Amino acid sequence: MQPNAAMMAVVLLGNLMLPLASAQNAGFVKSPLSETKLTGDTFELYCDVVGNPTPEIQWWYAEVNRAESFKQLWDGARKRRVSINTAYGTNGVSVLGITRLTLEDSGTYECRASNDPKRNDLRQNPAMTWIRAQATISVLQKPKINASTEITLSTNSSIIPVILQCSLTTDHTSHRESFWMKNGQEIPNTRTEQRTTVHRIPKPRADDSGEYLCVYTFDKAPNANATTKVNAKPDITGHKRSENKNEGENATLYCKSVGYPHPIWTWRKVDGTSYKDIDNSTGRFFITKRDNYTELNILNLDIDTDPGTYECNATNEIGNTAETTILRVRSHLAPLWPFLGVLAEIIILVVIIVVYEKRKRPDDIIDDDEPVGPMKTNSTNNHKDKNIRQRNTK
Ligand SMILES: *[C@@H]1O[C@H](CO)[C@@H](O)[C@H](O)[C@H]1NC(C)=O
Ligand SMILES: *[C@@H]1O[C@H](CO)[C@@H](O)[C@H](O)[C@H]1NC(C)=O
Ligand SMILES: *[C@@H]1O[C@H](CO)[C@@H](O)[C@H](O)[C@H]1NC(C)=O
Ligand SMILES: *[C@@H]1O[C@H](CO)[C@@H](O)[C@H](O)[C@H]1NC(C)=O
Ligand SMILES: *[C@@H]1O[C@H](CO)[C@@H](O)[C@H](O)[C@H]1NC(C)=O
Ligand SMILES: *[C@@H]1O[C@H](CO)[C@@H](O)[C@H](O)[C@H]1NC(C)=O
Ligand SMILES: *[C@@H]1O[C@H](CO)[C@@H](O)[C@H](O)[C@H]1NC(C)=O
């Protein structure tokens, strides 16, 4: 096979890769893929090569229609917009990234790999010692979308409908349609082919706050979108009113919120009318915070220091709100109380009987002396009493 024919094939096939004769050992596992991008966006190209020894990887670039004049790309090139990250293990893996794309970044990007010991010998034809894989990157002007960037819902509960609007003010190629998204999810029934699209929130609540996106789709270009942030004061929608635990157990208090931006969470202890920071000198308090959720974990509850009222406070740029949870801590002995109560009752009863009997004894003697007729029943009673007395005195 003629090496020149192979070279021609590489150039003609563009995106495809062909191993060249002298580098039998290097081969592509993953080669970069062609893409169309918008100005201001970012792209990444992947190149994954096998070989023994592990092949070296390089990235090269040629401007549109100048495929004969490749130049090598370096990490940090084009005012640090180019990054090259390569790792050599059993495979060689490299990622070429370019950020803040401009129209001039369009062109052909080539991943070259070789494990030929003579690959960097200037007398060798690189086309013989390196394998190559190409991708074409086309950068298009980003369409302009006119939209408001931010809306703040009134803290007043008065109901003023909110209207979100986007309009496409430039389009290089005709658009297909548009739709709305909220917090990363498409809002159903918002697709339209108009250049201007409107999303109405008739009765806005804190729940409606978040990040809204209008997205325009095109036939032969990436989607374009504009973001409108709908801000609202946080509202705590979930928390425990009280938590009852035994000493030595763990307690978990939590708060959930709606409202946007996601709040900054704090926890403190309410001390009458004032507040105290949580005293973590014992290292038993753990706070987790996740966007719209926070948790306060208290391990190994202490009956003296831990009971009380705890407050979670959600604060964002629009406002703040707080809710409280009462933590009660019972003694270890608490589950024994019913049993102790019965025991105490028995003891009291016995004491009463003993005291009663002791007082009664002189009367008994008098009774025995009395020579009155219908005393038979009485005397049997006295026998019983004696029995009890004997038992008790033992
Ligand atoms: C953008 O829209 C606002 C009203 O929604 C309008 O006042 C403004 O003129 C528009 N800007 C452009 C460039 O179209
Ligand atoms: C809030 O609503 C009340 C009536 O419900 C009104 O008097 C007040 O001016 C409103 N405040 C703001 C800031 O809009
Ligand atoms: C919105 O546009 C940005 C920047 O162009 C892009 O990175 C993102 O993927 C787009 N999002 C959607 C949902 O189209
Ligand atoms: C309390 O939490 C700690 C740490 O998560 C755990 O090791 C321990 O077993 C828990 N104690 C109880 C009583 O659940
Ligand atoms: C909290 O945020 C998560 C993801 O960020 C979301 O799935 C969840 O619905 C939100 N919960 C509330 C109450 O807003
Ligand atoms: C409390 O102390 C423990 C141990 O030092 C630490 O891991 C934890 O993050 C602290 N919690 C808070 C809320 O500061
Ligand atoms: C929440 O915390 C902020 C900042 O510390 C404070 O200004 C605000 O008064 C607190 N809100 C409530 C309801 O306690």
From TrEMBL:
One of its GO terms (cellular component) is plasma membrane. The keyword Magnesium does not apply. It is found in: Cell membrane. Keywords: Cell membrane, Disulfide bond, Glycoprotein, Immunoglobulin domain, Membrane, Signal, Transmembrane, Transmembrane helix. It holds the Pfam family Ig_3. InterPro entries: Ig-like_dom, Ig-like_dom_sf, Ig-like_fold, Ig_sub, Ig_sub2. CDD domains: Ig. It is a single-pass type I membrane protein. The keyword Repeat does not apply. Residues 1-23 form the signal peptide. Residues 365-394 are annotated as: Disordered. The chain crosses the membrane at residues 336-356. One of its GO terms (biological process) is dendrite self-avoidance. It comes from the Eukaryota. This is Neuroplastin b. It comes from Kryptolebias marmoratus.
